[in-house]
Amino acid sequence: MKILDTIAAVSTPPGKGGVALIRISGAEALSIAAAVFEPISGKGLSQIQPNRMVYGNIYETEPDGKRSLLDDGMAVYFKAPHSFTGEDTVELTCHGGTLVTRCVLTAILGAGARAAEAGEFTRRAFLAGKLDLSEAEALGSLLEAKNINQLRLARGGMRGALTKKTVPLYEDLRAMMGSIYAKIDFPDEDLAEMTEEQMLATLGDILGRIERLAATYRTGRAVNDGIRTVICGRTNAGKSSVYNRLTGDDSAIVTDIEGTTRDILKETVALGRTTLRICDTAGLRETEDRVESIGIERAIAEIEAAELVLAVFDASKELCAADRELIERLGELDCPVIALLNKSDLDVSADMSLVEASFERSLSVSAKSGDGFERLAELVESIFIDGELDLSSDAVVADARQYAALVRAAESVRTALSALREGLSLDLCCIDIESAMQSLGELEGREVGEDIVSEIFSKFCVGK
Fold first, then answer.
1. What is the 3-state secondary structure (H, E, C) of the chain?
2. Which listed CATH number (1.20.120.430, 3.40.50.1000, 3.40.440.10, 3.30.559.30) goes with 163-216+394-444?
């Protein structure tokens, strides 16, 4: 990426709308914008006070040098370093038609700007120190948020909630390194600020803080990425009706005919404060139908890979052999299972004592009326969400890269702690502490390679 270039892109979604915003950023942003925009006041754009929006006309320059009016709109100039990217930035707002927006961007590119790459504005903000890497990742999550809890989690990350926890950890390790080097370099002088007992206590405290922070990933992942959830059961237990109730749509075909669902249906939905990546599977039973058998094989594979299983039983009918076989199969799983005793809206009820005795969590529901689904949301939250965490303000790890860095940091501190307890050379402790600092630094982007940075920002839209 050529940092010295001045870049431009449309920062509003494509298509017809009331207005469209084109962002220009770089050393030549003001002069390029002035070449296409003239304030209606007659003053040059460079004479307008920064951070003040002005009205004017937008022009294009034709090949023969003649200027022609494209549109009218608004412009605002953000003078470096007081902008999102830390560079001179101009934002032009024109009418939101597809053609007029494209023509305005073309005029800007013709005046000397380069078309921005995906995520390039945010990447420049990161390189300018306007935000660290974890805050940039939170911004990416904000743009992708599909429910209010993902939005809250992203806003907390953008406000630096995670950074406020990791920077003190990094600094505490750095202070310890100073004491260790003092002991190594001047063993006969009392220059170290910490005794070995204090080092042990400090390392133990740091390890506990890292582990507690890493533990929030269970909550962050449940909110942000979603829990791989499988709905299973015998034929006609109401699996597809449960799926439709969770998705809020008639995505799955529901009939009285056994074996209606033959393939895997998948959807991502919000349930309470969690996000579920649910799949509806074929009913488990013995069958000679080759197509249905393939669906059942896929259902079994999905169950074995699940992070949460919703096992559906028809509470209006006595348990059959397929139900008992399912109970036995699910008993071998390591993941949480919630037994849903479906069709509670019917007057007829069967003996479900075996189901209730076989599973730690069971719940009476009606996929038809929705009864019991609020309780289901509470149950799922109790498994995956730390109720003491405030998604809007607390530090919550929501990204696999961040979690991996914390796990590596914890392992390095744990090794250093063991070495210190066993009386090994302080040099060995230094190696592990430095490794922990490097891992913590990766959260902010201090020690992250170019390939990782490029991968993160490639997921952003062009205008961001």
1. CCCCCCEEEECCCCCCEEEEEEEEECCCHHHHHHHHEEECCCCCHHHCCCCCCEEEEEEEECCCCCEEEEEEEEEEEECCCCCCCCCCEEEEEEEECHHHHHHHHHHHHHCCCEECCCCHHHHHHHHCCCCCHHHHHHHHHHHHCCCHHHHHHHHHHHCCCCHHHHHHHHHHHHHHHHHHHHHHHCCCCCCCCCCHHHHHHHHHHHHHHHHHHHHCHHHHHHHHCCEEEEEEECCCCCHHHHHHHHHCCCCCCCCCCCCCCCCCEEEEEEECCEEEEEEECCCCCCCCCHHHHHHHHHHHHHHHHCCEEEEEEECCCCCCHHHHHHHHHHCCCCCCEEEEEECCCCCCCCCCHHHHHHCCEEEECCCCCCCCHHHHHHHHHHHHCCCCCCCCCCCCCCCHHHHHHHHHHHHHHHHHHHHHHCCCCHHHHHHHHHHHHHHHHHHHCCCCCHHHHHHHHHCCCCCC
2. 1.20.120.430
- Assigned fold of 7-127: Gyrase A; domain 2 (3.30.1360)
Q: Indicate the domain borders of the chain.
A: 7-127, 163-216+394-444, 230-384
Per-residue pLDDT of the chain (464 residues; tens, 9 = 90+): 456 799 999 999 888 889 999 999 999 999 999 999 999 998 888 888 999 999 999 999 887 778 899 999 999 999 999 999 999 999 999 999 999 999 999 999 999 999 999 889 989 998 888 988 888 888 888 888 888 999 999 999 989 899 999 999 998 988 888 777 766 655 555 545 567 788 889 899 999 999 999 999 999 999 999 999 999 888 888 888 899 999 887 554 444 444 444 445 789 999 999 999 998 876 665 555 555 565 667 777 888 888 999 999 999 999 998 889 889 889 888 999 999 999 988 887 888 999 999 999 999 999 999 999 999 999 999 999 998 999 999 999 999 999 999 999 999 999 999 988 888 777 778 889 889 989 999 888 776 556 555 665 666 676 66
User: For the whole model, what pTM was predicted?
Assistant: 0.78
